[in-house]
Design goal:
Strand content: 5-15%
Distance between the termini: 121 Å
Helix content: 55-70%
Number of helices: 4
Structural class: mainly alpha
Strand order of the largest sheet: 1-2
Largest sheet: 2 strands, antiparallel
Shape: rod-shaped
Number of strands: 2
């Protein structure tokens, strides 16, 4: 219903100029909720803080790469020394070096040379009956 005081206008529109003066339609913006900017600021702040925390943890949590490779290199040298001592027939020294290398680098135990050296040690300590070893 349109009256002279209140014409039919969409929601959010007002008529300027009262009492028959210059009548113009003005668009009045609806008021935004005051919590939306605060929510946006909190989300941005949370992302910034989360990024900083994860960046700091990534630098602190990683062990230095040289320490692992140094132990693997030491284990490799011990295994090479063990192969030489096994070739000379020094089984106890060979076993000790292989065990020391296993403590430094357990993954290196899957090397076929290590399994062959350990098998040779077991064979010399517990020979099968009826089989003689060649001198």
């Amino acid at each position: 219903m349109s009256t002279p005081d209140k014409p039919d206008l969409p929601r959010g529109w007002l008529v300027a100029g009262a009492n028959g003066g210059n009548r113009k339609s003005l668009r009045v913006r609806p008021r935004k909720a005051p919590w939306i900017p605060w929510l946006a600021a909190a989300a941005v702040g949370g992302l910034v803080i989360g990024g900083l925390v994860s960046m700091c943890e990534s630098h602190v949590a990683k062990p230095p790469p040289d320490s692992q490779t140094a132990s693997q290199a030491r284990a490799l040298r011990l295994r090479d020394e063990a192969y030489e001592t096994c070739a000379r027939g020094q089984w106890a020294a060979c076993l000790g070096k292989l065990d020391g290398a296993r403590e430094l680098d357990p993954a290196g135990e899957s090397d076929p040379r290590v399994t062959a050296a350990r098998a040779a040690i077991v064979d010399t300590r517990h020979p099968e009956p009826g089989i003689e070893k060649a001198p």
